[in-house]
């Protein structure tokens, strides 16, 4: 495990955690590595990866490079350590579990990163409120204690009058919104939040100003003048005088643009096949479990693909798989199905609101037609066919394993019969 910790520490070089030295980093990563290896092996729940990521964030690894390189360590180094030799099926099983563990790790990292940012937001808001309680609305907003919090904060801070219009913002808030600070006073909060959330802004402001709530928080996207979009997590609280009357509001904002981009990218990577770009088995089974009935599934296994790898090698094989994926994706656009890659040369199609077995035969025909034309790969004309099994269910499937067993059986019966066929089974 020491070697894994060293490789992981090397991978994280540049995503510096200034609170730790190299020895401490390797010690921490050795402990987390043990946890992740156990999760990939299947001896611990994959959810432990969520907590492992939170530990990394707590150690001050907060750059996106930390999670992207850690995901690579999970999917490459840990898989190699667990399965240095073995059959292709054994390696594939370990790799698939590593992908699930990596997805949990990525989710834990983004969640912990968000909590850390919100913790700073809450601390700043509490300090600003405490200082503001001692200041009057306009005359003393520059009072020393409040001014120190207002100007020195790394998060955005703004004050708003009882009509919902901005009194003042600090430099961080102005930078976040992409407007000069001098242009902010007098503009409504709803206007600054943007039209997409103006309804939420009015509703929350009304509740705050009427005294029904003391604070609110919302996440919104703000379109800046330069055309870029900033994602903002905004908290607003009321400041009252000694009689309990609301004098003004204080808002604290955190720029979560990069966090959202990171979360979106990690979600995509965790739910899509890295070679073909198609949805992977994780996303497919999630969609199947929540599909709009009736539901149809077409399970496709390529015929002749092993020979492609044997004759021309895996590089050509990978190019064939990418070509196949594109052809299958285009072929089902007319029916709006979801096509995913769930194994080496195995693809699967989900058809929601399926009209019956006849439609699945039609869809399967489209898939076979898409593969009929030879592919030109590395100067070679390559042709692959497919064996397809289909299954239809009137209701959303409650037993995914049973449904998959039925469609898998249909596909392999076709394969045994010579391939390039379509067979239907009942779940």
Write the layout of secondary structure elements.
Elements: H1 2-11, H2 22-41, H3 48-58, H4 64-82, H5 88-132, H6 144-152, E1 156-160, E2 166-169, H7 171-177, H8 189-193, H9 198-209, E3 215-223, E4 229-240, E5 246-255, H10 257-271, H11 281-289, E6 295-303, H12 305-312, H13 314-331, E7 338-341, E8 346-352, H14 357-372, E9 375-377, E10 380-382, E11 385-393, H15 400-416, E12 422-425
Parallel strand pairs: 11-12
Antiparallel strand pairs: 1-2, 1-5, 3-4, 4-5, 6-8, 6-11, 7-8, 9-10
Structure description:
- The protein has 427 residues and is of the alpha+beta class.
- 52% of the residues lie in helices and 19% in strands.
- It contains 15 helices and twelve strands.
- The strands form three sheets. Strands 2-1-5-4-3 form a five-stranded antiparallel beta sheet, sandwiched between helices. The chain has a five-stranded mixed beta sheet with strand order 7-8-6-11-12, sandwiched between helices.
- Helix 2 (22-41) runs antiparallel to helix 3.
- The chain is globular, with a radius of gyration of 28 Å.
- The relative contact order is 0.07.
- Residues 135-142 have low confidence and may be disordered.
In short:
The chain has 427 residues and is α+β, with helices and mostly antiparallel strands.
